[in-house]
Amino acid sequence: MGDADVVTGVVAARARGLTKAYGSGETQVLALDAVDVEIARGRFTAVMGPSGSGKSTLMHCLAGLDTVSAGQVWLGDTEITGLKERELTRLRRDRVGFMFQSFNLIPTLNAAENITLPMDIAGKSPDRAWLEQVIDTLGLRDRLKHRPAQLSGGQQQRVACARALAARPELIFADEPTGNLDSRAGLEVLGFLREAVDDLGQTVVMVTHDPGAAAHADLVLFLGDGRLVDEMREPTAEAVLERMKRFDVVRGAIGDHPSPRT
Amino acid sequence: MLKATLRSFLAHKGRLVLSALAVVLSVAFVAGSLIFSDTVARTFDRLFASTSADVRVSPKEDDFDESIPSGDVRTLPASLASRIDRVDGVAATHIDAEVENITVVDRHNDSVGPTTGAPTIATNWAPTDRSPVRLTSGHAPRGDGQALLDADTADKKHVRVGDTLTVLARPGSFKVEIVGIATFRTTNPGAALVFLDTDTAQRRLLGGPGRATSISVDAASGVGDAALKRNIGHVLGTSYDLKTADEDAKSAAEDLGGFLDIIKYVMLGFAGIAVLVGVFLIVNTFSMLIAQRTRELGLLRALGADRRQVRRSVLTEAVLLGFVSSAVGLGLGIGLAAGLIKLMGVFGMNLKSTEMVVGWGTPVAAFVVGVGVTFVAAYLPSRRAARVSPMAALADAEIAGVGRPLRVRALVGGLLAAAGAAALLGCAAATRTATASSLLVLGIVLTLIATVVAGPLLVRPVIRVLGAAFPALFGSVGRMSQRNALRNPRRTGATAAALMVGLALVAGMSVASASMSKSFDDQIDETLGADFTVQNANFVPFPQEVTEKIDDTDGVGLVVRQRFTALAVRLPDGDRVKTTAAGWDARLDDVAHVTYAQGTSAQALAPGHIALQKEFADDHEVRMGSVLPVEFPGGRRASLTVGALTDQETNDFGMRGGFFVGLSTLVTYVPGGQDSAVYVNAAPGTSADTLRARLEKALDPYPQVQVRDLADYKALVHDQIAVLLYLVYALLGLAIVIAVLGVVNTLALSVVERTREIGLLRAIGLARRQLRRMIRLESVVIAVFGAVLGLALGLVWGVAAQQVLALEGMEALAIPWSTIVAVVVGSVLVGLAAALLPALRASRLNVLAAIAHE
Hints:
The complex is a heterodimer of chains A (262) and B (854).
Chain A: H1 3-8, E1 11-22, E2 29-40, E3 44-48, H2 55-62, E4 70-75, E5 78-79, H3 85-95, E6 96-99, H4 111-115, H5 117-122, H6 128-137, H7 153-166, E7 171-175, H8 183-198, E8 204-207, H9 211-214, E9 219-224, E10 227-233, H10 237-254
Parallel strand pairs in A: 3-8, 3-9, 6-7, 7-8
Antiparallel strand pairs in A: 1-2, 1-4, 4-5, 9-10
Helix pairs in contact in A: 7-8
Chain B: H1 2-11, H2 13-51, E1 55-59, E2 76-77, H3 80-85, E3 90-96, E4 103-105, E5 120-124, E6 133-138, E7 146-150, H4 151-157, E8 164-169, E9 172-184, E10 192-196, H5 198-206, E11 211-212, E12 214-219, H6 225-236, E13 240-244, H7 245-292, H8 294-302, H9 307-346, H10 361-386, H11 407-429, H12 433-466, H13 470-487, H14 489-527, E14 532-535, H15 544-552, E15 556-570, E16 576-584, E17 596-598, H16 601-605, E18 609-613, H17 614-619, E19 627-631, E20 637-646, E21 660-662, H18 663-669, E22 677-682, H19 688-698, E23 706-708, H20 710-753, H21 755-763, H22 768-807, H23 817-844, H24 847-852
Helix pairs in contact in B: 1-9, 2-7, 2-9, 2-10, 2-20, 7-10, 7-14, 7-20, 9-10, 11-12, 11-22, 12-13, 12-14, 12-22, 13-22, 14-20, 14-22, 20-23, 22-23
């Protein structure tokens, strides 16, 4: 994918020379080391890597949640590096959807209110037809009036997924969305993310350390020590697992390499 | 376990700061008031002990309660001194000619006396080594027309040696030249002092030579005061009062004690409010800390700590908090006392802060209050902590639940409320003031406790209504803030309770005082018919000259004088009632409207007759024509015939029975009295404005009296009621400060508790401004909830209190709506102010760190 793709709108987000450092001088740790990456529109991308590889940091930087030390990040054709806090907040609200591993929902709001929260905050009314479609797709029709405490973990993640989809954002970031779920509920959520891409035309970036989860993506990006080290199209769980094992070998060989924060 | 407790205390010290502040404030007020009153008491004990004569001989005192002074000065013959001189054991005698409550004016006709209500005292200059003052410049007064002034007054009013002052004494005004300045050797209690030579003082102040107000006796060396008193007593018999230095100092201290007690009780009132409100704060803080530490406590339990250990650990933390806060509060209290002592200096009472007395009782009280309050407040939360099960360690971190059902609270609150309501209804139905007021107090206490207990139950319904418009007005931000306030009714209830207590008191007091003002207005409208009244604010009598000046003023049509005297009446049912009676000029009907059940003003004011209130008369078997034995001051006795019974409700405190007589009758038995008020009507053809201008001009040399029309008179009464209100407002101020601390505390801890939620909201696009607004709205909802509850409770109290006032003749009920609106608006501001810091803190949270927050 070259710059031409950006113009035609095939790239949902990209980063050039993205560097994120913690600390300074002797103790400086590079979480991301001059990463170049592009996220294709309408695709399901998984980001994998061992603990401390910088995969979460990458996602946070792409989503405008964290500042970068060097390099540039674009969301669509907006450069988000250099945006002010207020503009970043608006960008996250209007153009990005989020799913976190846990604590995704506001406990005082019911499912329906949680789903429309980003639009309510923005003071916009949701696209009713789209909202109905999302709700039906995720099977939340009869759970709308429930508070998060009255929902199972899987149902809660489905509500979070619906919230991420509801505003029809340019990009959905999912940070370990299945990390806290049992395998059945996890599969269900992955299925929904897949559907969101295939049937609803959404773009999803998912950070995970579970090869099984990564296998649902169209493309897997492998991060190691803050660098993009590999990618895999049409992944299978076995292939991803094999690739991940090679990290352990490398890491074993390097030994006591300091691990950056994720 | 102790180590874990200490660690926990230090780890949470930031969160305990606000609770500590509440304890510090209450301890500071307790300590400050104790230190202050001890210091003042010690200073005055010393002053009186050092200045009292060994034995003082004075006119026989009556046992009457003089609620309004008659202006009569009791004297004894100065020749008594020579008789005493001959008594065994007497070294020397001194004549005292001393008059209190006179007025001294400078050449601009401005009073040089204290503006604080302390008296101006004129006395004879007879310096001894016991005198509280000594001459520091000029020379002693010699003969008529010379005087000394005390240095503090001279300083304050810019009077110098050589200036001329006018003394407005009862026998007549006279001019004096200041020939010297006398300076206090000891503490100046705040009065202004003018010294004349003895002969001048006798003639000019007491109205003739050969009189004295008392005689001071020095004991010969080796003669005890008590022995000397006995010796003099043998010679003089029982017709005079004799007091030793000790007794004299004691009674002087008692006179002053009333004033000091007021300051002490006001300070203790502040301490009480601080304690009461502080308790809510502490309960809330510990409850929240424990809720936040549920997992940690669960882990401790899982590791084998038993319930008692957990409870003890929480209580130890509380005691530590109480101890530290008490120590700080004690220090602050010393500062507060020093400040008060300085403040007294402004009012003319020069105490020395270096002689501050910190008795052993002060630190004891400080620590008992501080540690005790904290311990008691932390007790319930500690029991809740002990109930945390070991399973809590494994459970998910989500807390902030609804908690246990509020059934017990509903039951207890309901019962208390019912009992309180019954007491208040009983108060409204009662016919005796004593019964009604004790039922009122009971009702207030019960309903207050009921509201505090049931507060959490009211959170849901009331806040649903209060915040109903929020989602429409502020969208999802409004919805979340309303729901956050509803999230933990216990916490919201306890936070709002602090505000509620203060506002309930204010609402109740303002209803009562507004009703009092309105009743007085009604009564003044109903009874006062004069164009003008001439008097001063506290019915202190004034010299005859004032009345003469009024009589001589052009355009004055009618002048009716009023005097007061203390007296005792023996009633047919055997009671001896000590009260104060008024004396009126004959044309009472032209300046006042008195309604009579029987008789007329003419019959009431006829010589040898007396009138009283019918209700009181019925209670004591008095009828028209009954002959009542009456004792007047100075031992004069009379038998007065009941000439009229009035239907007036009396609300003049201290004037039980509403007795009044004709002025001529009063003058017969209290010849030395002075007028306390003069009622003036304009002559036909003279307009009120013209007359007023003339009266004011004529009375310019007499700054102690003022000319007032009906409206001014009402304003005067309102001002006197307002003094009470200012005190209440000051108490409210303190209660609000602490209540704001409470709201800040709750919000700050809630922000900590909801860190992850805030992180999530920020991640999905809630702007900082919106987040701040969310917290502000929650704070406003809590504050307004407290205000609504407080006002509702206060209104009920006020209406019940008015029922008690009605029994005392104040029948009007007035609800001060403007105050109530102001309180509601004020509570919104309080909410906004309280949210400032927590909102700022929340909006500054780092999004990623917040999401990852455990």
